Amino acid sequence: MAPHASERILDVGSVQGDNLQFFQDKWCSVTGIDASAEMLKIARAKHGDHAELILAQAEDIPFSDNEFDM
């Protein structure tokens, strides 16, 4: 993956948000979803307000088509 600054990235199955830092370092806007509230709590502790983190199932992503670049 070769993300560019300002691209919107969706990380499905974010777990603890470990992949989000890579995209943040590239100046991307990051959103992570995961089915575990506990994992999202850990991700929020790591990323604070720098990532949007949403409790959701991968089978039912709460976004419209083409809302993200990757």
Task: Reconstruct the topology from this structure.
Layout: E1 8-12, H1 20-25, E2 29-34, H2 37-47, E3 52-55
Parallel strand pairs: 1-2, 2-3
Task: Output the keywords.
three-stranded parallel sheet, 70 residues, 24% helix, alpha/beta, 3 strands
Could you name the ranges where pLDDT drops below 50 across 5 or more consecutive residues?
none
The total of helices stands at 2
Helix and strand content put the structural class at alpha/beta
Shape: globular
Sheet-strand content, in percent, reads: 15-25%
Mean of all residue-level pLDDT scores: 93
Q: What's the total number of strands?
A: 3
What is the N-to-C succession of helices and strands? EHEHE
Distance between the termini: 9 Å
Major beta-sheet overview: 3 strands, parallel
Q: Give the proportion of residues in helices.
A: 10-25%
Question: What order do the strands of the largest sheet run in, or round the barrel if closed?
Answer: 1-2-3
Radius of gyration: 11 Å
Overall description:
It is a single chain. A three-stranded parallel sheet has the order 1-2-3. 24% of the residues lie in helices and 21% in strands. It is built from two helices and three strands; from the N terminus they run E-H-E-H-E. The termini are close together. The chain has 70 residues and is α/β, with parallel strands linked by helices. Strand 2, helix 2 and strand 3 (52-55) form a beta-alpha-beta unit. The model has no long low-confidence stretch (mean pLDDT 93). The longest helix has 11 residues, at 37-47.
